[in-house]
Amino acid sequence: MAERAKITMERIDQYRWRIPKGTRPGMRVDGVIYASDKLMEHIRGEQAAEQVANVATLPGIVRASLAMPDIHWGYGFCIGGVAAMDIDQGGVVSPGGVGYDINCGVRLLRSDLTEAQVRPRMKELVDQLFRDVPCGVGVGGSLRLSDKQLRQVCLKGAAYVAELGLADEEDLACTEAGGCLEGADPDAVQPAAYKRGNDQCGTLGSGNHFAEIQLVEEIYDEKAAAAMGLAEGGVAVMIHSGSRGFGYQICDDAIKALRNAPRKFGIELPDRQLVCAPVESPEGRRYLGAMRAAANYAWANRQALAHLVRKALAHQMKASVTSLGLRQVYDVAHNIAKIETHELDGQLRRLCVHRKGATRAFGPGHPELPARYRDIGQPVLIPGDMGTASYVLAGTAEAMARTFGSTCHGAGRVLSRAAAIRAARGRQLEKELAEAGVIVRARGRTGLAEEQPDAYKDVHEVVETVHAAGLSRKVARLKPMGVIKG
Amino acid sequence: MTKHCETFEHTADLGLEARADSPAELLEALGEGLYAQICQPRDIRLRQKRRVQVAAEGAASPRGHEPDAAALELLVADFLRELLRLFHLERFLVGRVRVERCDETAVAAEVAGESYDPARHELGLEIKAVTYHQLKVARDRSGWLARVILDI
């Protein structure tokens, strides 16, 4: 589409490419893209590298404007970007660095079920999920929340759902940030967001969101897999969703509210969508307060979804949730900004870490990890496309040192939605997937076509790259057996 | 030239590109184009009307002046955001947009459509938001042009 600026990319090593600081005016740090040669071919064809360079101009950015191997062209920030701003050096927070779907993320439940038990009943299991888990555009859930209850969700996150009896202690312990960010400000959330959020907690949504029954196909790290309760031939369920209309509205309101902030704070922006304000300013604090409310809403949403999934499977398998061993492995956010302490040039610094289409991957020993994962590193959940595979990884010390404890978030798109629909024309995707052993139920007239396997980068290549680059290590590969989509 | 709106591709998102003879028609084309992504226009009956108004921030020009392209960019985004709110907040589907006023200080429109009825309306894309990314409004010899990227 628009005129393409030439961006210099120098090879640093086998999996890293540098966009030198001087490439664009105003860059404060280098851009660094993690990618294999194969993934680089696609990245060169897009404007994503230009976006990595644009983010490098934002005030307070330290080390580098980083991009993960699943990077693709977004709006403002690229998808797959990580940017950390030093709060004490005027570092900014940008709603565009988080995205519209605040705390879009992934949850994984493991089970004691085996492939032999579920494969023959996969159609019934998927139908049951499709009936019980609200999904699709404009579909509300059974959990209606008043504004007063929504304010509690903003403040408590997944713990609010636990109060309703839909979660256990272990769920919260095995969720990033315990399923709740402190400092959420329900007063910073506009009435429109409350209106959109009142019937969407416990709904999957549409687009790339899904719930998937998966086979644990291969284990790469026995010790870590054992700690996560995963074994070859086992069955797991992955849930991918976010903060729904509540979060989209909060982001939209924030981008408009911050429109004049760059001028006020003397920040020159190469793209309007990069609007931002210093973390330590009334505008920055207000956005962070609202963003945390949305993040907490998302954790409550995935918690409510997990409850629906557990109930559906138990019903169809004619067993109890406990006897099926449907316990939570972990829950990660991949669209979020968080205040974290990281070591930089030998000093501990307070940073605002933006992860937009990137997953936190804290290494072993980090105090935020629950005891069972303290030795192995944080579980990282990477959803692939519905025909290929998803991965479970573990965080590393290397990620802490290089990427503020961050790694990739998925396969990353290669085809636009329209191109995907064209590619699916005349094909029976549902039948093709069934022949490949994947039962799919999807709502909407084009959802399945847009999300077909060919629309995504090769998830294996993305995961091999972060593994080889040391940003996280492979623990298990999961193969889809049954999928529901909005 | 009559007004029209078509889509263009963006890897994760979707773009709308409209052309028209006047800024008012440009907004009508974009607004109707936006809703065509949400629901088939032929399925939306024009049963109810709504008013949509957007005021420009800190605009100084006198009322009635045709806006220049730069001033129109933010108005375009804000107008589409307001239109989208009708679906997000009220489940109202817009089938027709008539812009009554469009100058540097404000846009006012009357839109017609109906409430979403799952029995009759098959929804297409879930449009999360109207972005400001690469937002463009321009005027050339053949009229007005706008490009907007939607987050889906």
Biggest interface pair, counts? A-B, 44 and 36 residues
Helix content of chain B: 25-40%
Which fold name corresponds to the CATH topology of chain B? Answer: Archease, Possible Chaperone, Chain: A, domain 1
Major sheet characteristics of chain A: 8 strands, mixed
Name of the level-1 CATH class of chain A:
Alpha Beta
Total beta strand runs of chain B: 8
Explain what this protein looks like in three dimensions.
The complex is a heterodimer of chains A (486) and B (152). With 486 residues, chain A is an alpha+beta fold. Helix content of chain A is 33%, strand content 26%. In chain A, strands 7, 8, 9, 11, 15, 16, 18 and 19 form an 8-stranded mixed sheet that branches. Chain A has a 7-stranded mixed sheet with strand order 1-2-3-4-5-13-12, sandwiched between helices. Chain A has a two-stranded antiparallel sheet with strand order 6-10. In chain A, a hairpin with a 7-residue loop joins strand 15 and strand 16. The model of chain A has no long low-confidence stretch (mean pLDDT 94). In chain B, strands 1, 2, 6, 7 and 8 form a 5-stranded antiparallel sheet that branches. In chain B, strands 3-5-4 form a 3-stranded antiparallel sheet. In chain B, a hairpin with a 3-residue loop joins strand 4 and strand 5. The radius of gyration of chain B is 15 Å and the shape is globular. The relative contact order of chain B is 0.26. Classes of the chains: A alpha+beta (486), B alpha+beta (152). At the A-B interface, strand 4, helix 8, helix 10 and helix 15 of A face strand 1, helix 2 and strand 6 of B.
